Amino acid sequence: MLAVDTLTMSDYMMSMDRVNDKLNDIADSARLGFEVERMDHMLDLIANNITLIRLNMGRRRSGTNIKNLYLYQSFASNFNAQNDRIEARLDKMYNTVYRAKLRLKTVMSDSIFRILCADSSLRHTFSQKLIRLEQKWSRVDSLTATGVNTLNGLKVKVTNNAITLSDMLNFMNYRLDKAGQQLFAKETNFFWQKSLPDTLATTKSKSIVNIFESEQKAVNYYISQTSRQQGLIVTILILLFVWLFQKRKQLKAFRKNDEKFAFLHLRYLNTHPVLSLFIVVLSIMPFFDAYAPTSYISGESLILLGVVSTIMFAKWDRSKWFVWLILVGLFIAVASSDLFFAPAFPQRLLLLLLHIAIVIAGLRFLRKMAKETVYYRLSKFAIIVGIVLAFLAMVNNIFGRFSLSQIFGTAAIFAITQAITLPIFLEIVIEIFLLQFQSARLKKGNVKPFETTILVNKIRLPLLIILSILWVIMLASNLDIYHYVYSTIHDFLTNPRVIGSISFKWASVLLFFVIIWMAHILQRLITFLFGETGYDLDDITTATKGQHSRLLVTRLLVLIGGYLLAIAASGLPIDKLTIIIGALGVGVGMGLQSIVNNFVSGIILIFDGSLKIGDEIEVNGQAGKVKEIGLRVVTINTADGAEVMIPNGTILSQNIVNWTYSNDQRRVVLDFSLSGNELDTNVINDVINDVVSKLPNVIAKNKPVILFTKVHQDTCWLTIRFWSTITNVEQVKSAAMLQLNAAFKDKNIKME
Fold first, then answer.
1. CA distance linking residue 180 with residue 188, whole number of Å
2. What is the crossing angle of helices 729-746 and 681-694, to 10°?
């Protein structure tokens, strides 16, 4: 217990300061910012969307359109997750404010402050400051009470939304289960029966207007809820058009010099650049619109089909284009039947004829496809799947499952038309890559054509995977099984797996290998940006030491960056990583010395500069021209056409003969004999000097050296030495022997 007479004025002042600081701290904890207003707005928005979903679903029967039910279920699930996140955040804020309110009750527990408040003379002395503290306490108390009340009000909204969303999701699941049962149940009479029951046919005939209105509501609601996705798509389109605007002059130059740039094979960008970009954007829409209403997807696809029809009018023969127009017409008819057809006999008959026409048109177009095209097998498979779906649609129509028949028919026409349009999309994307690479090469001054096959083969497989995913997404969406497929795959990839003490997800493993794969593809593609053409001879003769060093360093950095990014993206724990590194260290010590040696030696060769692309070398009994210096081996081309791969460690550990280290000159040595009645050394020297000086690829500044190694009365043996370029030694030697023989023959001298 503190004695009053031992306290000083300074102690009382410090006590009031401590109380003031506590009040300030409590006020900061209890103060609610703009985040609360934002959450309030979001909760109201969720409530409004719940009301809209309920209104849009109110007049829909469960078996009419499962896709729209999945659409509303998807949005409701997202709203439920958003509501849960807001609830979790509100709980944290409420706990903070409530603890601040409890702390406010203990703010006067300071013993010195209590003595101050109990003594009337001291209260009089510090009256002004005590009044301000009392006012602040009242304000903080009001602030905490207001914060608690505000958060309680928001928690009430969260609870109401949670209850409503839970009921709505349960009701949706019930309707989806019921809709699935109705799809596989008999809806109307068999096709060969004359009379139709008045139940479903009459009801559906009367509800066509309601179906159309409900579809329109679903489309409007979908557009209102996907503004970000639409904005992203528009952004992609704008970026593509900006890119095209920048490349317009080059495309014009390519068209003028068609023969010079024919190696690019720009079939679409040269003729219809704007429409080609529309095809790219419209083809990737399924990534964003898998849950979109059928009419919305049909509208997008119809625009895509129109653009493809315009582009392919001049590229396909008339019969093929005519079959394509039939498929487009069938697409429009089938899409319209989903909204306006009822299970009455005339509509069922017309729908049956449409499905038969889909089968015939699909088979006709399949026959007209070129079997040598790269995508023939994939397109053939997709078209056959569409034909099978059309056949299933006919069977279900005949046996009274009208709604299921419509689903199969819609999926069939989508599968067939996408099997035709997606390869065009892939070719356009490849052309965009080729145009961009050629543009980058021209900026660097590389005007030589490059081997496009290498680049195309590298990027085609990833694009084919994307193409297949797009087709599967659209197929699953039209079959109304996308939600199930997506959920199954998502759960499989994201559910934690445990092996011993290690926990992992298949999504992380997949991402790890995909990033590494893309890094390897990228490190190969950038070689074209550094001037490589893909033709071995051109790459060997045009590469400089600086270009080659920069290229290898860049490829090394890309690979290292790719592996590090893959490790980071996979979520591999650091402690597990250290274990792996330790295991690798043991592996290096026990059996990986040669691999590490070659890797380090490759890095040394990159920066050392003792070898470069195109050098003529001899090492380890092998002679040839350096084709590639990699991180593990050096590849040389021998004179026999073989490719010999020598480990980098061997290169550094042995003596290397580099014929082109400082220059590309090599000495040519000819040994022959001359015989005749009168051999004049002056005549012989003149003939040799004259012939050698006129030979192509001979270095003129170094005069030939003529040595008489042996001399008899009518015969002499000579050795001639002169210089040529390393790549033309054999050709020069052959030409020299032929021309010397002819020149000595004119002088009546026999050459052997």
1. 16
2. 140
* CA 676 from centre of chain: 78
Tokens 């905490």 map to which residue?
Answer: 144
Cα separation, 300 vs 305, whole angstroms: 9
Residue appearing with tokens 């729908």: 351
**pLDDT, tens digit, 9 for 90 and up, residues 332-356:** 998 888 777 777 778 888 888 998 9
Q: Show the 3-state SS of 20-43.
A: HHHHHHHHHHHCCCHHHHHHHHHH
Where would I find the H helices in 503-642? 506-529, 536-542, 545-570, 574-590, 593-608
Residue 333 in contact with residue 354, Cβ under 8 Å? yes
**What is the per-residue pLDDT across 212-256, written as a single tens digit (0 to 9) for each?**
677 777 778 888 888 888 888 889 889 989 988 888 888 887 777
Structure tokens at 207: 């509800």
Site of tokens 């839970």: 166
Percent helix, strand, coil in the chain (nearest 5)? 70, 10, 20
Of 607, 626, 611, the C-alpha closest to 556 is: 607
Query: In angstroms, how far is CA 692 from the centroid of its own chain?
Result: 60
Length of the chain: 752
Per-residue pLDDT of 47-96, as tens digits, reads: 888 888 887 776 444 444 677 788 888 888 888 888 888 888 888 888 88
Which of these, 524, 282, 525, 327, lies nearest to 425 by C-alpha position?
282
Least Cα distance to 237 among 174, 282, 272 occurs for: 282
Helix 318-340 with 208-225: angle, nearest 10 deg: 110
Helix 593-608 vs helix 545-570: crossing angle, to nearest 10: 140
Model confidence, pTM: 0.73
Task: Please identify which residue in the block is written with the tokens 């990534």.
Answer: 287
* CA distances (Å), origin 28, targets 31, 38, 698: 5, 19, 89
**Strands laid side by side in the 705-711 sheet:** 705-711, 715-725, 665-675, 750-751
